[in-house]
Write a structure and sequence with these properties.
The chain is α+β, with helices and mostly antiparallel strands. The chain has four helices and seven strands.
Length: 129
């Protein structure tokens, strides 16, 4: 997945968070400000808060799908100490012990790179390969 991200996305590109539902509502823009072999830098929110997403987060999602090719991960980045079970946020944060909800951005980057696609599982938005 990381190779697709590196080949597809570029600094200055604006993406949208997954939002809710399909078609999505309540999406929020964020900007990719840098991509290296070790991380992706993004700016989020109106204040353009910088965040660094280590490659390990994306590798953890990739590993999840290698172990479970028919599996799915929820898009449920909540600002709680404990992330939602079976979510992109849980997998990504566990990979690097990240303290904040960041799974929505990881999911949006992977979707924009063509690595995953969004789908609805009942009333829950998810990703799968």
């Amino acid at each position: 997945m990381w190779n697709n991200v590196m080949a597809t996305l570029s600094p200055g590109q604006q993406l949208l968070t997954p939002g809710r539902g399909i078609p999505a509502n309540r999406q929020r823009p964020f900007i990719i400000t840098g991509i290296t072999h070790a991380h992706i830098d993004i700016e989020i929110g109106k204040s353009k808060t910088p965040n660094r997403l280590p490659r390990a987060m994306f590798d953890a999602v990739d590993s999840y799908f290698q172990r479970r090719p028919a599996g799915c991960l929820r898009i449920a980045a909540e600002h709680a100490v404990i992330p939602t079970q079976d979510s992109v946020d849980e997998v990504a944060r566990a990979a690097v012990h990240f303290p904040r909800a960041i799974g929505n951005y990881v999911a949006a980057i992977l979707e924009a790179a063509g690595c995953v696609r969004y789908f609805m599982n009942g009333d829950q938005k998810c990703i799968r390969i």
